[in-house]
């Protein structure tokens, strides 16, 4: 298995092409074709929930695969919409539900909810990205976490959004060399600690975001040692190592983030 830092670089160095290959894989391409053909025929919440294949696709696209079985829960979220502060999805801490209802907003748009680009191509794009992250995670969970953080970090508004998402919190704790036991401490204390160590504005800067992810992947490999592996064919003949060298360790220690 390749080191996490190297594996992440291979994926992220040409992300559009990587996503294109992911979409062209047989299973993904079949699911995409089915979704593209059928989503425009959905005119109601009941239509949506009745097509298990279609609904599963949409749920996976929004990172909600583990809740696909909970149709009663999702029906309530869809029925109430997001226009009221008292709406079910609005009151949920997890923003994925609000995003899902915003994409398939039957409450606001009725029968036309599924014709908007966010419900068609936007959802397909999200599905492909989720599929890529899952595929990478099957080989190396650190790469999946890095890709997920790269996708979510630029839109973070406060430290509590990190703490509400176990995957984001895992990345930050790892990058800051904090123990997992930190997750059991007072949430306000955790938020203050994160605020002292990182500046969320840095994550809107691609270079600073990449530096943070590089730190995470390096420290992830230190905490999760792997056996060295051969580099893929595209790298044969180039000086590649799957282990962390002294230069990388020194650079990790010298990186400073935030204030």
**How far is it from the N-terminal to the C-terminal residue, by CA?**
36 Å
Mean pLDDT: 87
Number of helices: 16
What portion of residues is helical?
55-70%
Order of helices and strands: HHHHHHHHHHHHHHHH
Q: Any idea what the CATH architecture of the largest domain is?
A: Orthogonal Bundle
How would a textbook summarize the main sheet?
none
Classified by CATH, the class of the largest domain is: Mainly Alpha
Strand content: under 5%
The H-level CATH homologous superfamily of the largest domain, spelled out, is: AGR C 984p-like
What structural class do the secondary elements suggest?
A: mainly alpha
Protein name: Flagellar basal-body rod protein FlgF
Organism: Salinarimonas ramus
Pfam family, one: DUF1217
InterPro entries: AGR-C-984p-like_sf, DUF1217
Task: Give your account of this protein's structure.
The two termini are 36 Å apart. The chain folds into two domains: 16-123, AGR_C_984p-like (Orthogonal Bundle), CATH 1.10.3700.10; 141-254, AGR_C_984p-like (Orthogonal Bundle), CATH 1.10.3700. The chain is globular. Helix content is 61%, strand content 0%. The chain contains 16 helices and no strands. It is mainly α.
